[in-house]
Amino acid sequence: MARLTLLALCGAALLARHTLNFVAGRAPGRAPQVSRRAEADEEEEPEYVAAEGDRLKLKVLSPEGDGISLACSEVILPSASGQLGVLANHAPMMSALDTGVLRYKEDGQWKPIVVMGGFASIDANQLSVLVNDFEKAEDIDAEKMQSEMEAATALLEKAASKKDKLEANQKVKRAAARMQAAMFLTRKK
């Protein structure tokens, strides 16, 4: 519950920032002093050597502080209203994310990450994705994945109350996303 609250607060802060800049007519480059200091801290991170054509910086962050930061050329997000494609020079926007597979194209290769809901914000060729949790496709155990899907489906069939059905539905979504990401990797081999 604490993660969800933290994620909601981060999403609300990002939305407020973009809304105020839009309403006030300020350019995105004229950020408040606190933002400038945060951006200065980011500059201390090692620069990624991007392949030719990789012009979009992707950052995936979870409440635990885990994250991925890399350069890519294209990202497909599992937004709450369907899949959302992001290329370099995309218009600034924000979107809610659903549980699903985030795919990004790095060095001409598509790579999947399973995300468990959150928010995405794009501005100035930087895509920031704040998620409840995420998992790299390489870390998924294919044998465990199949049994997890069967258990989640059985739990959904047995659910009686609305709360139980909602929880079981989330488990099925997560298992399906993990299965999709793992199959994505096996198809490429």
Automatic annotation (TrEMBL):
Cross-referenced CDD domains, in alphabetical order?
Answer: F1-ATPase_delta (cd12152)
Residues covered by the ATP synthase F1 complex delta/epsilon subunit N-terminal domain: 56-133
Q: Which GO terms describe its cellular component?
A: proton-transporting ATP synthase complex
**Annotated membrane topology:** Peripheral membrane protein
Q: Which InterPro entries match?
A: ATP_synth_F1_dsu/esu, ATP_synth_F1_dsu/esu_N, ATPsynth_dsu/esu_N
Q: Where in the cell is it found?
A: Membrane
Ordered alphabetically, the record's keywords are: ATP synthesis, CF(1), Coiled coil, Ion transport, Membrane, Signal, Transport
- GO MF, one annotated term: proton-transporting ATP synthase activity, rotational mechanism
**Coiled-coil positions:** 142-169
- The signal peptide here is 1-16
Q: Which family does it belong to?
A: Belongs to the ATPase epsilon chain family.
Can you say what this protein is called?
Answer: ATP synthase F1 complex delta/epsilon subunit N-terminal domain-containing protein
Its lineage reads: Eukaryota, Sar, Alveolata, Dinophyceae, Suessiales
